[in-house]
Amino acid sequence: MNRNRRIVQFISILGFIFLYVPIISLIIFSFNNSKLVSVWSGFSTKWYFALLQNEQIIEAAKLSVFIAAFSATISLILGTLAAIALSRYRSFRGKSLLSGMVSAPLIMPDVITGLSLLLLFVTLRSLIGWPAQMGAVTIIIAHISFGMAFVAIIVQSRLLHFDKSLEEAAKDLGAKPLRVFFDITLPIISPALISGWLLAFTLSFDDLVIASFVTGPGASTLPIVIFSKIRLGITPEINALATIIIVLVAIFATLAMLQMKKIPE
Amino acid sequence: MQTKIIANKYYDNNQSDNNHSLAADTKPWNDKNAKPFVRIKNISKVFGNVAALDNVSLDIYKSELFCLLGKSGSGKSTLLRILAGFEKSSTGIIEIDGQNMENIEPYERPINMMFQSYALFPHMNVEQNIAYGLKRSGMKKAEISQNVEQLLSLIKMEGYNRRKPHQLSGGQRQRVALARALARKPKLLLLDEPLGALDKKLRQETQFELINIQETLGITFIVVTHDQEEAMSLATRIGVMEEGTIAQVGEPREIYEYPATRFVADFVGSINMFEGKVIKNEAADLRINSPELDVNIHVANNIACALGQTLWFAIRPEKITLQKEKPKKRSNFAKGIVEEIIYLGDVSNYRILLNSKKRINVTRPNISRDEKEKISWDEEIYAVWHENSGVVLAS
Q1: pLDDT digit string, tens, across residues A106-144
Q2: Mean pLDDT in residue range B280-290
Q3: Any CB–CB contact under 8 A between A13 and chain B?
Q4: Per the CB < 8 Å rule, is B107 touching A172?
Q5: Which of B81, B105, B123 is best to mutate for the A interface (most A CBs within 10 A)?
Q6: For B183, nearest residue in chain A (alpha carbons)
Q7: Cα–Cα dist B205/B223, whole Å
Q8: Which among B112, B122, B181 is the nearest to A264, CB-wise?
Q9: What is the dihedral of CA B77, B170, B111, B214, to 10 degrees?
Q10: In 3D, which of A124, A117, A119 has the Cα closest to residue A140?
């Protein structure tokens, strides 16, 4: 017994090392004094300050946050509507088609999604003259296309476990349908909505592949900037930026998970 | 008794004439001129091509505690949901207190429902749950909290205002659900398996509380249940449902002692059934010959039937007596061997294998502790009954 447990412990420690040592070393080297990435020469926070001076990165970060927040919000609305349609209405024409189409972006390779959206935008431009230029708007549209899929899946699974008699009880006690939605349905599914939004935000924030297909001049998101910078070699500045992103993503992921836990059985 | 006083206080504030509970000797359903409070007329409900309800008509009177009893899928819950307005009937009319309920939305009906799952709002505490219906009717805050306090004392849960539903026990949740359903002072309260989720002991206590509250408030209750014991102990009348139709309506005693069909006889309580043909049908003398018995069945009243018609004679296990010596009479007994004895303390259940290989059940109170009177396994025995003890069923 004891020996088995030791082995399990040993293997899981190996697993954690495999997963987290690269990230931890990145965090440690972001505090390196030296300009050389692989040589430690003392503790310093100067790369963080350098980062704050770097206009390009700050602008890219602002753009990324804006795009992530905007696309997550639209994804939330569309995804929730899709989830309601899929879980609440017994059957309608094309239900299984919609169900499949909603979850398709989850398994579609990013390259394909990016490429097909690029082709769409190019065709649209030649047909109706819009979008005149690739940029933030096209990235937002692209991010909504997969963000809403994630929201729809999360909200749908919540709605499937939703006891419909709760809504009937509210109706029975004198609440009109709209009131029932705001008093009962919305508060009960809100943890799923919040975690769906957070997930859509995170996915949009760290998307590189799709964004690089549909971006245009002047619309460089943070992942695009980082990727173009590391082609010139990894700098401690990038390490510092990566550390900040890791912390932010960790906070968001934790919040999303806490919200999921709130969902009553 | 405390419940009674508080309940009076709660209801007398606003309604003065509903305090007359249904006295045991007033039975409006026996009075041809009594006006029914709930009138269900020719209700049918079709789902796809399955008829959940088939032309159901039912009159329920004020202050009744009416039980709809049936197996799952018998249509009882559908009928309840049509009454509440959650489902629309395919055909038929429902009137409550003289008002036609067609096109009246659930939130406008003078009805409240207690759900099987209780459906307490998980994000609201006990007080908010109970107050929800009152808020919707636009009651002032002070009045609401006064009402909530009275309801909490009615269900003996003072001080639980701030608890969330998941912090309550099953019995407490059930009581909060009841209080919430009563808060709007409905004319009619629908209860879907109100005791279904409680354990046996709690169920019995709650049963009496429920009857007590119902009697004190004088509200008409319609209870849906699949548990015949529950129906027997709660109801003023029972409507037994079978495959979307009402098989029989009657007082619990009537349903048990005089079931109208084989289905009712078999569903309510347990019963022994013999199939046979009529060989004599004269005034107070009906004789049936059953191949399952060695002697004829003799019943001391007659029913409309033809000679040679197939009938069923049904008799409850406790109405048969067991004796070791052969009876002197020439009908109404059966000889057999004791195949199984189940000792339950107060009574014992005997399974007797008759000569015809048919098995019958007999329940016998354990009156004597004398070993000599004990009936044991494999013993030859006579099962005997009185000519008034059984019922003859034509369908």
Answers
A1: 888 999 999 999 999 999 999 998 888 888 999 999 999
A2: 87
A3: no
A4: yes
A5: B123
A6: A173
A7: 17
A8: B122
A9: 110
A10: A117
Encode pLDDT of A179-225 as tens digits. Answer: 999 999 999 999 899 989 998 998 999 899 999 999 988 889 999 99
ipTM: 0.80
C-alpha distance across the termini of chain A, in Å: 34
3-state secondary structure of B188: strand
Of B119, B136, B180, which is closest to A163 when you measure between CB atoms?
B119
Closest Cβ–Cβ partner in B112, B121, B166 for A172? B112
What residues of A are in contact with residue B136 (Cβ under 8 Å)? 173-175, 179
Dihedral Cα A44, A47, A52, A54, nearest 10 deg = 160
**Best residue in A173, A193, A194, A259 to probe B by mutation, most B CBs within 10 Å?**
A173
Q: Which domains can be identified in chain A, with CATH numbers?
A: 46-262 (1.10.3720.10)
Contact yes or no for B247/B260 (Cβ under 8 A):
yes
DSSP assignment of B228-248 equals HHHHHHH-SEEEEEETTEEEE
What span, in angstroms and rounded, lies between the C-alpha atoms of B236 and B63? 9
CB-CB neighbours of A52 under 10 Å: 10
Could you tell me the domains of chain B?
2-110+186-262 (3.40.50.300), 270-393 (2.40.50.100)
CB contact B113 to A (< 8 Å):
yes
